[in-house]
Write a structure and sequence with these properties.
The chain is α/β, with parallel strands linked by helices. The chain has 2 domains: 4-201, Alpha-Beta Complex (Spore Coat Polysaccharide Biosynthesis Protein SpsA, Chain A), CATH 3.90.550.60; 214-317, no CATH class. The chain contains 13 helices and 9 strands. The protein has helices at 14-25, 45-50, 64-78, 97-102, 135-143, 157-163, 175-186, 218-234, 238-259, 264-270, 272-279, 287-298, 302-318; strands at residues 4-10, 33-39, 55-60, 83-88, 92-93, 111-118, 133-134, 153-156, 191-201.
């Protein structure tokens, strides 16, 4: 008998997690198991999960969206589940969402997705038709930023065996899009959005016209750096991927210049750090490292920040590396 597991990745959002779990428990077609990957939550998430006998609680240090879904999919594969229904802890599937997805189950020939709707503005949205829709029909809805493959997506184990797992080194932004593009473009697996299967989700709040805080913008680092890896999965031609990334960087800098009023110079200079790491495939930065770096530079003047790379270049060029002294005889 084929088994289905609902996979939820959670981090410090216990109220939303409780609502999500309640929605899973009330599905007209129950998943065979519910797995919650607890990404190092520091609230009472762990305490609450340990008291739920029907939930498999996998605790790990915070490894971001990428590490959470990587661990969850790996656990499901190792425990021989056939279908994995993925969602964030703030996702809220309607009561028949899984049942509608399973009616179109095709043993891994396609990836099946819920229709993801902005829960804060659901009354103004046009609902899809009753028949299932292909990715072509729902491309704007899926790739708009308000929906992604880890919000109500049903993955068959054959897809995971072919495509592999989410890239853990991406940590945060772009993990879901990179995985989707890998499924679509590198393995030619079609994606279908099932019109009767609905999942409510909060809107994506970032807007390039809004002011963002320089000292705490660690998420912005991943937004810029990971874009290049996402484009490399989207386009098989690396030159095309490079072109689109350079275009993105230019547009992003222009957006900063036009709409940001505080720390304008620092924000523009900041862009070159994740861009450099993207080109050099450096993925060692963590939120803690990024925050520390930004807070340090936030205390410096814009002029000092501007001169720092040139100062470092001059010092590296003119001051020779000190060689270890020869041992005394």
């Amino acid at each position: 008998m084929k088994k289905t597991i609902a996979l939820v990745v959670s981090y410090n959002r216990l109220p939303q997690l409780k609502q999500c779990i309640n929605a899973l428990r009330n599905q007209t077609k129950q998943p065979d198991a519910i797995l919650v990957v607890n990404n190092g939550s520091s609230d009472y998430t762990s305490v609450w999960l340990d008291k739920q006998p029907d939930i498999i609680h996998h605790y790990q240090d915070n490894s971001g969206t990428a590490g959470g879904y990587h661990a969850g999919l790996l656990w499901a594969m190792q425990n021989r589940y056939d279908w994995v229904w993925c969602m964030d802890d703030d996702g809220l599937p309607t009561v028949n969402a899984l049942e509608q997805l399973m009616q179109h189950a095709d043993d891994g020939n396609s990836l099946l997705s819920c229709v993801v709707i902005n829960e804060e503005d659901k009354s103004s949205l046009v609902w899809p038709s009753k028949s299932h829709k292909t990715l072509t029909d729902c491309r704007q809805q899926i790739l708009s930023g308000e929906a992604h493959p880890f919000n109500g997506t049903l993955l068959h184990r054959r897809i995971i065996e072919k495509v592999g797992y989410p890239l853990t080194h991406l940590f945060y932004w772009g993990v879901e899009r990179e995985y989707l593009y890998r499924i679509m473009h590198q393995f030619d697996i079609p994606v279908k959005t099932i019109g009767d299967s609905v999942l409510y989700h909060p809107p994506f709040h970032y807007c390039h016209k809004e002011e963002w805080d320089y000292a705490t913008s660690w998420k912005m680092y991943f937004y810029i750096r990971n874009r290049y890896r996402v484009l490399q999965s989207k386009y098989s031609n690396r030159l095309i991927a490079l072109y689109h990334y350079v275009y993105f960087i230019a547009a992003f800098c222009l957006s900063v210049f036009m709409y940001q009023k505080q720390n304008l110079v620092k924000k523009i200079l900041f862009v070159f750090w994740p861009m450099r790491d993207a080109f050099l495939s450096r993925y060692h930065a963590t939120p803690a490292i990024i925050r520390e770096n930004l807070q340090k530079k936030n205390k410096q003047s814009a002029f000092t920040v501007l001169l720092h790379p040139f100062k470092k270049l001059i010092l590296d060029f003119f001051i020779p590396v000190r060689l270890p002294e020869a041992p005394s005889s």
